[in-house]
Amino acid sequence: MLRVGTCGFSYRDWVGPFYPLRIRPALMLDYYAERFSTVEIDSTYYAIPKPSMFESMAHRTPPDFRFTVKAPGSVTHVPADAAPEEDDLISFRACLEPLIRAGKLGAVLAQFPNSFRPARDAFGRLELLRESWPDLRLVAEFRHRDWQKGSILRILGALDIGWCNVDEPRFESLVKPDAQTTSTIGYIRFHGRNAAKWWKQERNAAERYDYTYSTDELVEWLPRIGEVIEQTDETYVFFNNHRNGQAVNNARQMMDLLDITPAPVDDGSRQLKLLE
Question: Is the dihedral of CA 11, 14, 18, 22 positive or negative?
């Protein structure tokens, strides 16, 4: 099973390029879910929500819609030799319960910073996540290429933690594009190739993801996506080049290239409801 979507959906600068001009923010997910079968929720990196947020999201999306959710930064972005707060581990698992009950949780993405390198403490962090969330499908995204070794991939496989393949600027220290899999779930994220803005501070993060993929650049990934699909039960492809709705356009292009047909949308009556 293959799903294509975007990293996030509630961006103000998508109004116009993707959302109708008068859409209410509370109905953005409804509109999005009629056009894509999955979304990656990244706001959980900044704050752990109450379960009621995901209860509402589960209720407002079709039965076959799937969410993937990013683990909080308080778990992934503390130094490798420090222990995350146990309360955060517990609270994050609890907030996902509505999605789990609805059968709509695809995976949890643990994205680690470039400073997180392979070492005893780092492997201990991965083991802690698996022990804390034994029933969740976990995927790890690493930013440093030192993780991209066969011996490390085997460790991830033993922990049943999936590998996130990425497309990003071609710096030597960053993970190179590939088709690795270490669990039954495949995961691919397109961050854009804006090398000039990649190392900017967090306050300028939106500029980092200001990039539009060409058709040729997307076609490069078709063989890799095919390899991932062959080795997994379910594969997710997400676009994170979110500035001004570029992620939506590239996700649609990728769906066309992969011959994925979105569900038909009754734009007439539905759009009037969204704008009421």
Answer: positive
- CATH code at 97? 3.20.20.410
Model confidence pLDDT, tens digit, residues 24-65? 999 999 999 999 999 999 999 999 999 999 999 999 999 999
**How far lies 185's CA from each of 11, 162, 180, 232, 262, in Å?**
27, 6, 11, 5, 22
Q: Which residues contact 87 (CB under 8 A, 6 or more apart)?
A: none
Say how many domains are in the chain.
1
Joined together, the tokens standing for residue 96 give 């996902």
Write out the residue range of the structural domain in which residue 167 sits. 2-275
Residue 203 banded pLDDT, cuts 50, 70, 90? low
DSSP letters, 197-222, are GTT--GGGHHHHT-----HHHHHTTH
Q: d(Cα 30, Cα 27) in Å, to the nearest integer?
A: 5
110 three-class SS: strand
Q: List pLDDT tens digits, range 173-197.
A: 899 999 999 999 999 999 999 988 8
